Backbone:
């Protein structure tokens, strides 16, 4: 009986010791964390203004974690922007990294989205987590997110004139000015310039956000002035049309409901770009009232000239910081615009 008791005690003691060893082993294992984006895809309009992208831990962060990420896609970010190709978005914070604070489970990449004067196909922004400053944080399969940046609503103004033929050739320019009224222009908003006789059209896109307030001016309801310039050529008369086409919810307005205006220049209206002279001659105006484009006037043709100058006019300091009016030389039409050109 005594021997049995001693044996039993020894077994119990070894068992308890084994449990202690096992428990100590589990305590020594480091805690691991799973790091992901909160979603793998998203979509947002250019007009939204901002977008937050969230990185997520499955447990509270043991310390401040710095998550590094890369940016890819078809959009232009702030490091790639030029005066003629401004950025589509910028990062509000440190570019390429986001911090998850100790005790928290999320960090936020805050995007600032910019309206622009281009009608484009939808673009993409792709964020991919590349590293984190803690070896116990593991990346999951959800380490990338692709965002579709959707074209915002607005209006297209399409200027068209005859193709080169035995009757002659012509080259026109389209410029847009903006002001509170048609008697008070603040500067060139945008424009389209093709050089040479290989094209018979120019177009601009104007989003509803392009108002005085957007550019730091004191008014919201804005007036736009269109200058249709007979830059050079031999056509006399030069007959042209200006077509206003709404773009809403990813689609262009049906051709049957578009507003089309006609104008005709003679050789007397022809004049090239001359620096140091007064501002552009406005041939047509329209307004943005509470985000709606309205009050489109007829085309007014002067007896002579169609543009005095545009270089002498003030230019807007664009919200993206380019500080220049944007005269577009477009070599590749987006798919959306190809159906517009006759």
Residues:
């Amino acid at each position: 009986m005594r021997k049995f008791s001693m044996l039993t005690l020894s077994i119990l003691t070894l068992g308890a010791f084994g449990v202690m060893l096992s428990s100590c082993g589990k305590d020594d294992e480091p805690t691991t964390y799973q790091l992901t984006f909160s979603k793998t895809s998203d979509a947002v309009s250019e007009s939204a203004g901002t977008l937050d992208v969230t990185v997520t831990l499955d447990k509270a962060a043991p310390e401040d974690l710095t998550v590094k990420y890369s940016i890819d896609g078809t959009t232009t970010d702030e490091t790639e922007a030029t005066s003629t190709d401004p950025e589509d978005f910028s990062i509000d914070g440190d570019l390429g990294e986001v911090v998850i604070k100790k005790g928290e489970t999320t960090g936020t990449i805050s995007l600032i989205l910019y309206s622009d004067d281009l009608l484009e196909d939808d673009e993409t922004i792709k964020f991919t987590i590349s590293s984190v400053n803690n070896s116990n944080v593991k990346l999951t399969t959800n380490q990338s997110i692709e965002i579709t940046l959707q074209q915002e609503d607005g209006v297209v103004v399409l200027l068209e004139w005859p193709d080169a033929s035995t009757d002659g050739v012509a080259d026109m320019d389209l410029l847009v000015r903006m002001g509170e009224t048609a008697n008070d222009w603040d500067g060139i908003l945008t424009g389209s310039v093709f050089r040479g006789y290989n094209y018979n059209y120019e177009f601009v896109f104007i989003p509803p956000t392009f108002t005085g307030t957007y550019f730091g001016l004191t008014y919201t309801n804005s007036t736009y002035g269109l200058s249709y310039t007979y830059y050079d050529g031999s056509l006399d008369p030069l007959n042209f049309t200006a077509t206003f086409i709404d773009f809403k919810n990813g689609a262009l307005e049906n051709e049957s409901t578009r507003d089309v205006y006609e104008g005709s220049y003679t050789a007397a209206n022809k004049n090239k770009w001359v620096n140091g002279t007064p501002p552009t001659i406005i041939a047509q105006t329209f307004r943005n009232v509470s985000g709606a484009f309205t009050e489109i006037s007829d085309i007014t043709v002067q007896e002579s000239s169609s543009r005095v100058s545009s270089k002498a006019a003030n230019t807007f300091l664009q919200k993206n910081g380019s500080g220049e009016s944007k005269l577009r030389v477009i070599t590749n039409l987006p798919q959306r615009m190809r159906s517009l050109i006759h």
In short: Residues 16 and 22 are 10 Å apart (CA to CA).
